[in-house]
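Request: Have a read of the protein record below and say how the chain folds.
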Amino acid sequence: MMLAFWIGATEASLAGPLIGTVEGQLEENSWPIWVSDGFDSYGEALKQRYSSLETYPRTGKRGRPRVPKLVVSPQLRYAQVVKERDGRHRIIRVFKRNVYGKVDLQTVGTVCVERHNLNLRHENRRLARKTIAFSKDVDGLTEQMSLYQAYFNFVRLNRGLRHHVLSCDHGQRKWRFDTPAIAAGLTDHPWSFKELMASKIYIND
């Protein structure tokens, strides 16, 4: 699912707020596996959010004050998929690494989020660079992205969420595609765009 989005001038400025928004959509006391590319802003934002200050004695002569140290929670799990490039910006090596906690590196990747970013730019003209449709107003872009988030979760069929169904006519197995909201148990059918726009959303503050 598209849990959250955040609009910012740079990736470094939006890493912290985006992580906080995603955390608010998860179950309480849940510890997901965080995965990103090799950009260090996400790791630093996670460190600041899931760390606590502990005091350790400073080594050396007696009588010196204790120095507080930022200690990352042992429950935090964060891995990176790093792409190394040469001088012509071509990828020469891709490797994975654990940053915090212990993560099975065979199970992590950035393919899904990279594909999602492609879908965002392909289906939302406000994100198409170097075109007249590119959004120049933050409020307008926020409203458009909110609409697209609801459309993506409830209306748009996802080819990655498919399963076999039995055809009533010939007894053959066919594919049926679901939406992320169906996979998450939020609804039992794909919504039409009319149904989405006519639904009342109740938000409890």
Notes: The chain is about 30% helix and 25% strand. The chain has a mean pLDDT of 85.
